């Protein structure tokens, strides 16, 4: 079942009514259900899906290359306390929970730039949710780093 909202309806309000914008003002309950299921799976320590249609995933090696040559901006989608404790060096805090409440957060990103969304690895719902939402809002240069901070640290790469 699909519901349509005008482009001025923020994601937060749409969520209250059980919908999530994914394409130019069109909302699908399927996307919201997927995010809700990812939250349930995360609580049960289950892995997130290995891929999503239309979403480009990067490996740790690819992410490191883009970090090293500064060809992408890293977006940490975890909660603030985790971000403040440790993060990929130079990353920006871009919380999934806040994006779900307020669509205006998306406007802070430049659609011409490349972003890499990450969180706490394969068990974390936040980065895939951010990628799905931003892709739906027309951000085509958003990449998903599924392995996230745990693999980055395991490989001994720079954190702060």
What are the main properties of this structure?
160 residues, 5-stranded parallel sheet
Characterization of this structure:
Helices cover 38% and strands 16% of the residues. It has a domain of 108 residues: Rhodanese-like domain (Oxidized Rhodanese, domain 1). The N terminus is likely disordered. The protein contains 7 helices and 8 strands. The radius of gyration is 15 Å and the shape is globular. The strands form 2 sheets. The chain has a 5-stranded parallel β-sheet, sandwiched between helices.
Q: What would you say about this model in short?
A:
The chain has 7 helices and 8 strands. The chain has 160 residues and is of the alpha/beta class.
Count of strand segments = 8
For the biggest sheet, the summary is:
5 strands, parallel
Please name the CATH topology of one domain. Oxidized Rhodanese, domain 1
Overall SS class: alpha/beta
Low-confidence regions: 1-27
- Radius of gyration, in Å, reads 15 Å
CATH homologous group name of one domain:
Rhodanese-like domain
CATH architectural designation of one domain: 3-Layer(aba) Sandwich
For the record, the CATH class of one domain is: Alpha Beta
Strand order of the largest sheet: 4-8-7-5-6
Number of helices: 7
What portion of residues is helical? Answer: 25-40%
């Amino acid at each position: 079942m699909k519901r349509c909202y005008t482009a001025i309806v923020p994601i937060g309000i749409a969520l209250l009514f059980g919908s999530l914008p994914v394409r130019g003002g069109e909302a699908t309950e399927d996307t919201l259900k997927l995010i809700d299921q990812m939250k349930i799976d995360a609580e049960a320590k289950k892995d997130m899906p290995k891929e999503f249609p239309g979403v480009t995933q990067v490996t740790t090696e690819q992410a490191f290359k883009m970090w090293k040559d500064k060809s992408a901006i890293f977006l940490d989608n975890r909660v603030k306390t985790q971000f403040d404790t440790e993060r990929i060096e130079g990353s920006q805090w871009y919380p999934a929970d806040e994006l779900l409440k307020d669509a205006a957060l998306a406007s802070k990103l430049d659609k011409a730039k490349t972003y890499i969304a990450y969180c706490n690895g394969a068990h974390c719902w936040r980065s895939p949710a951010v990628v799905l939402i931003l892709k739906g809002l027309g951000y085509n240069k958003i990449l998903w780093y599924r392995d996230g901070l745990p693999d980055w640290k395991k490989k001994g790469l720079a954190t702060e």
